[in-house]
Amino acid sequence: MDLVRSIPLLSILILFISGFLFIIINKKNTKKLSAISLFLVFILMCVHFIYVYKYGSYTYRVGHFDAPIGITFFISNTEAIIGLLFSVVTLLICFYSYFIIKNEVNIEKQNLYYLLINVLLASLLGIVFTNDLFNAFVFLEISALTSCGIIAVKDSKESIKATLKYLILSSLGSGLVLMGIAFLYPLTGVLDMDMCQQAIMNVGESYNRLILISVCLFTIGLGVKSAMFGLHTWLPDAHSSAPTASSAILSALVIKPPVILLIKIYYRVFGISLIKEIGILDVLLVFGLVGMIAGSIFALNQKEVKRLIAYSSIAQMGYIFYGIGLGNKFGVVISIFHIIGHALTKSTLFLIVGAMIHKTGSKYIKDLKGIGKEMPITLGLFTICSLSMVGIPILPGFVSKWKLSLATIESGKIYLVGVILLSSLLNVAYYFPIIINGFFGEENIRNKVYKSKELKKAKMIPLTILTFLIVLSGIFSLQLINLINIDF
Asked: Which of 59, 108, 126, 381 could form a disulfide with 139 if both were Cys (CB 3.0 to 4.6 A apart)?
């Protein structure tokens, strides 16, 4: 049993160690070692999920010392599901990248690229698993630096500019998180999340202002890193100018752990009662609502397909912050479920549009008219993903929006259901034209040959599996939501 409980730490170590092996082995073996390490972590995460499902939550001590001297991981159903999700999505994205990486990354830098991917995944898992605030900050920093690396590795003018922008804003977010810890530590004397809450319960009433400042710093800092609307300005450039696989990882995974950390800080460090008294959830609710609408409006006005999907991510993150801002348990559970659905869907969308851009030689939406004739299966998969984003029944996007509406009614804010409906209509307005013009557009259809640009079977495998997982997560949404629900 202790061995299985070591899997989160073991997985992080495997990713770190194997990643650094990439720079000393022969370049021809890099992809093989990358695939082996990611597949091994995926298998370990499957075993770990089964264990947590069977035996329940646990706290794991890293090293020989208990908290507060030592560091602990807290693992519940949510952490186990997210760990499994991150491992499978990264594995499938990298599997796809092995075929296309030569088109976007210089061969001399491919070892470095896969090193950065492994270290990035390790740091994201660390943020999700850790129960220590400073340890979380360290993992946040590693994830920020490696994220910059997988953008800049494309070595184009746009990617370098986007990297600098992301680095500056992410550093600002990190600084605010560190200041949040600095304001909290004098009150608690510890950094273990459970112990922090106990200490705050004892002294909280005497230091209301310090607690308020600390909560605000954590919220803004993690809001920058997770692209909360208003703090999102780095995202469109970073996601649209990065290599295709990097865009998929950034949008599907990198912006999610800061949100999970923020939920843990609200519930496990300060306690939800105190958070409600401060009123920060109302701020989160407003930013979530504005993000849902404004993100979609920005997406609607984009001419480049990758930028459209990037702005769509800002709208989708709005749903997540909105769910947390509702302040009830159900809203948070659905936010976490939306994280799962969005990770699967957005990674697939970025891989698909990357393939379309490569095949057509154009990044503009207008040039995708008639693409359904040349790439019918690929556009078919794009359609399924888009339908999920819009909120068509049985797909996870629909489940999220339906359940968020119920959570809204439960919170007594029924008038806000209209905003969810409006946001869904805006999703239709920018996803459906791509589908309709892709299948039925006639302006660019001359000289196009049926299936002439369709992806090879090997490239279709990860896209098909990801799409299959999207559908599965919708069909088994009730079971997934119940599993998450147990933790709250």
From this structure: 126
